[in-house]
Amino acid sequence: MSSSIERSTDATFELIDQLDTMLSDHERRQHVRSPKVSETSTDTKPKSKNRAANMAALQLLMDAYPEVFNRDNVRPLKIGIQEDLVADEKVAKNKIKRALASYVRSLAYIRSIRADVDRIDIKGEPAGKVTADEALHAKNKLRDLNKKRREQQVERETEERMSNKLEALVSMTRK
What we know:
This protein is mainly alpha-helical. The protein has a domain at about 70-175: ProQ/FinO domain (Fertility Inhibition Protein O, Chain: A, Domain 1, Orthogonal Bundle), CATH 1.10.1710.10. It is about 65% helix and about 5% strand. It has a two-stranded antiparallel sheet. Strand 1 and strand 2 (about 125-130) form a beta hairpin. Helix 1 (about 1-30) runs antiparallel to helix 6 and helix 2 (about 45-65) crosses helix 4. The model is unreliable at about 30-45 (pLDDT under 50).
């Protein structure tokens, strides 16, 4: 019985070593590193707070310019619309920057960037067209985002499988 426990313990330690190696390899590939004490900041906000602030700022733009910022009808914006929004003074400059950054990074917005589609100004009127180069850039960005999502999904599944195997080994050693 004790040799069985020793074998299970040895197998567990081997698996832990393998997991540690895999984690190190993953971190090296992703260029992930722990921040040094001097690099940590007390004013960093969690992503959820930033996301909430971005959504609140975007809601301000949606309320002030419903014909332009509409989730049901996302259209490409005029190049330089930020300056027009700031000059209109309906929304604070810092809120405009935050909202626009969030808006133009959304999948719906990126999908709206197609060649020869009208861009719109702050009144919802046509103000230029999307060029073929801009459409190609958007298409490539979508491709890259989808690739990144697939890679993250594979990583999550791999981590889950490894975690399940480790839990099974741990439960075997407890018996």
